[in-house]
Amino acid sequence: MxxxxxxxxxxxxxxxxTGQPYLGASLGVSFAKLMMTAVxxxxxxxxxxxxxxxSTIDGASNIRPAVLPPxxxxxxxxxxxxxxxxxxxxVLHRESFLKWVFxxxxxxxxxxxxxxxxxxxxxxxxxxxxxxxxxATWFYQYKQIMAERLAAVGGDNDVAAxxxxxxxVPEQFxxxxxFLNIVFAIASSVYHLQYLATISExxxxxxLKYVDSTxxxxxxxxxxxxxLLLSVYSIMRPSVPGVWYVLGTALRICVDLGLHSDGxxxxxxxxxxxxxxxxxxxxxxxxxxxxxxxxxxxxxxIPDESxxxxxxxxxxxxxxxxxxxxxxxxxxxxxxxxxxxxxSLCFFRIRKIQLEVQRILYxxxxxxRKFDNLxxxxxxxxxxxxxxxT
Length: 390
Known about the structure:
This protein is mainly alpha-helical. The protein has helices at 7-11, 30-38, 71-85, 94-106, 138-153, 157-166, 174-190, 199-208, 211-215, 220-236, 243-257, 272-296, 341-362, 374-384.
């Protein structure tokens, strides 16, 4: 893609919703109504045509993009993200994120700061020593520019924010700046009571300044990662477009890439790292889709009957290495040690159970005749299903 896929939302014609929005089988359920309010599905649909990526929070237009935080603060945000969000939805591969996103901006990671693993050390050895000197990192350059401009004009934090917004970031840092800022936005939303009410919105605004770089990349999986992270943020914070629309974009990318099916011959087409990356992104999308559709009473995006993709590997990210041979399948490997992805695999199975519950209890689906009750049917289905088998 050479332009933001979310631009299509801006250009599309959306009719105003004047009546009660469709809530499917959950019509009248108060929780679904709360969710609909949170994602701004009512009259704010009109706003999508003018400002498809701006928050619906009152006064959001007056919020400036966040100033790039110090390295220690950035590491704390990333620690929170990997512990609280990536453990449930492992969108990002930890070592790959540190190498290609964190290091260009901040330099090497402080290994004293753990990232969702007490049993396996962060494995940066496979990437070799960091070739980037501290002077070449964007944060070092950013500090130098800010110091010079502040010395020239003086001022308080508001002046610093204004000066920061005027700094032109070199193009090679646009992609890392998007991913860092959206991760900061998600992390600050996890413990929102600890931070200023607007800080998540500020980080999101900072991320969206560079969102086009993720859609102009030659790596389609990176485009999907960007949309999935925006979806995660949209669940945690009311925003426009709502999570339903962002998730729809992710579903279309997923189908275009064929992530829902391992397929005949695909096992030899990709290396081991890419195979696992495709699987983890698909199942993150699956989990989000089932979660939102269950809450809102909407039809699911991809039916289970069309899914043949296996679950991603339970191995810690330190053991999943870029450039590994094609004949290895990480989903067949086991380390015997606990991994943060054990949590995500449990969530994937829970979403499958949720779908069965919704189909039979709320959509009047038929219980297979060979089962005496719903519990027996769901348990047998999950146990015997080849979908996502590891």
